[in-house]
Amino acid sequence: MSATAPSPENAPELTHFRDGQPRMVDVTDKAATTRTATAEAWVVLPPEARAALEAGTNPKGDPLTVARLAGLAGSKRTADLILLCHPIPVTGADVQVTLEAAGVRIAATVKTTAPTGVEMEALTAASVAALNVYDMLKAASKAIEITGLRLLSKTGGKSGDYRAEDRQGQPIS
What we know:
alpha+beta; two-stranded antiparallel sheet; 29% strand
C-alpha cells in the first residue's frame, strides 16, 4: 500500500516551512508560561561493560557522574544542535543516571518559563547523557546499545499536559 501526498489545497500548514523554505516559528506574541518536560533513555550494557562499571575499574573515571554533567550541559545547548529550535532559558534541570538491572537509566527533567516548550531540551539532555555513558565505557565494550529515548511527560503550553504510558497502557509515574 502506498501513501499518496495530500493535494495542495488539503495539505496541512507546515509550521517550520513557508513557501517551501525553512523558517523558525515566530513566538514573539506568545505568552511566556512555566513548562517542564521529562525524557528518558537507556544504555544497555554487555557483561564486560557492566563489570567495569560495577568494579569501578573504568580507566576514564565514573561514567555515571560524567553522564549527569553532560546531560545538564546538553540541555542548555539544544538550540545549537536541533535545527529551528528556539533558544530558551533553561531555568532548572535535573539529570538522574542510575544503574539498574536493565542497564543505565537516564531521566532528564528540564524547566523553563518561555513562550515555547522544553521537550527538546529534556530529550537532548537524556541523549547526550547516554552518549557519554557509551564514550566512557567503550573501551570495555563496543557492543553498548543506546535505546528507549522518549518523552515521559510535559506540562504547560498550548497543547497541554502529556504523560507517556507503559506497555500496559498505564500512565508512567
